[in-house]
UniProtKB/TrEMBL annotation:
The keyword Transmembrane helix applies. Keywords: Membrane, Transmembrane, Transmembrane helix. This is ZIP family metal transporter. The keyword Transmembrane applies.
Amino acid sequence: MDHVVLAGMWGLVAGSALLLGAVLGYGVRVPQWVVASVMAFGAGVLLSAVSFELVEEAYDQAGLGPAAIGTVGGAVAYTVGNMWLARRGARHRKRSGHRQAQPSEAQQAGSGLALALGALLDGVPESAVIGVSLVDGGAVSTVTVVAVFISNVPEGLSSSAGMRRAGRGKTYVFGIWGGIAAASTVSAVLGYAVVGALPTAVIAAVTAVAAGAILAMIADTMIPEAFEDAHLAIGLITVSGFLVSFALSHA
């Protein structure tokens, strides 16, 4: 199969988990402790994937310098974007609304668009590295795909539950996550087709940038939601997710 098509297919698979989570979060009354626990597990999975699939890969390809600079650069870029969106109503976009509510459009005009852009900001780096992983050896990183898929389910679940509580309708909620799933496909394709043509050192730096952005996203949006209702067990649940991903990367 053509690698561009393959990259798009795996990007869509990972992104479709957001839509799956949105369906569950909007249509099913999932207990808050379940949402928080799954979010903690997904955070652990992503932490492991970032450590052993992204940063380590960047280090192996280009050394400590590009890996460190890229990771810091990704974290800075994500944080700046997140700060801008936070002032426009997307600060709590991954919150289910149980304790920390998302604003409605009436409460803060433009918050709907900010939520959509926030979801895009969170999803693009994860999908891009799926495409980049095809560059080395022509096979997608199974661990990266699994990690992104597992983490996307609770993200879509929690955020769509918060959107429902804020009074946003089905068309808006499912339109957002369907659009992000499509954007994930495009991001994976561009990750392979564009980044894959660059020098190895640049590929390593881009991989590290994505890693830094994902790490910042975990700390800023996933862990806070998990802590709300699973604070007594969040460490154990997060470690469990980390170990599952670690085992997959060394299988």
